[in-house]
Write a structure and sequence with these properties.
Layout (H helix, E strand, L loop, with lengths): L15 E2 L13 H15 L2 H11 L1 H9 L32 E8 L2 E11 L3 E8 L4 E8 L6 E3 L4 E3 L2 E12 L2 E9 L6 E11 L4
Parallel strand pairs: 1-8
Antiparallel strand pairs: 2-3, 3-4, 4-5, 5-6, 6-7, 8-9, 9-10
Protein name: Twin-arginine translocation signal domain-containing protein
Length: 206
């Protein structure tokens, strides 16, 4: 894979949405509690073995979809993916160099969750793998090596990417800043999947 790790590309429709109030399961709405839980989960999975197990436990359906679509061979296994975690990686494109992996924390659909990611490739495709263990969700972003069309793969479907957007979440990451998630969405721009987090949303609450 090449080192192109841009956040959005010419196929993306960029739009910004406002922050929404978020309550994680079993958590209060205090920002401090969300931050503590997000950090705890990220640390928990910032380990090669634990991240691999997370993909194996939550990604069986994703693996089968990748095989059925011809993006990877029948022999593909998460055990063959490199999970040598870089602590600075909080997002990656499918076109990122192979052997890149990272873990961060975020808030998705009112649940605080770890977000694990790793880049890999097959003979024909470049692949970004993502898992949210606390939401029992795994998905992938896939691009053919000889083209520029991106696909979103979940445990139930394969769909062309339709748009991308960024959105703020209720988690402080620095003084006067909250986290910002970047999403790729399906061809109808309805089902969206986070693949990157940044400390980029200005908010004087933090």
């Amino acid at each position: 894979m090449h080192g192109d790790n841009k956040r959005l590309d010419r196929r993306s429709v960029l739009k910004t949405i406002g922050a929404a109030a978020v309550v994680g399961t079993g958590l209060t709405t205090t920002t401090g509690t969300v931050v503590a839980e997000s950090d705890r989960l990220a640390r928990n999975y910032r380990n090669e073995r634990r991240l691999r197990v997370a993909f194996e436990q939550h990604g069986a359906g994703l693996r089968q979809q990748l095989v059925d679509a011809g993006f990877v061979s029948e022999e593909f296994d998460f055990g063959d993916v490199n999970f040598d975690i870089d602590p600075d990686v909080t997002g990656l494109e499918p076109t990122a160099e192979d052997r890149l992996a990272g873990v961060t924390g975020t808030v998705e659909k009112e649940t605080v969750t770890a977000l694990g990611m790793a880049s890999t490739s097959s003979d024909t495709h470049e692949i970004g793998l993502y898992v949210q263990p606390e939401r029992d969700e795994a998905y992938a972003l896939v691009e053919p090596k000889d083209g520029d069309r991106r696909f979103i793969v979940t445990d139930s479907e394969v769909t062309p990417q339709g748009c991308s957007y960024t959105g703020c979440v209720e988690e402080c990451c620095a003084e006067n800043y909250k986290k910002q998630n970047t999403y790729n969405c399906d061809q109808n721009c309805r089902n969206c999947y986070v693949y990157s987090t940044d400390c980029a949303c200005s908010d004087d609450v933090c």
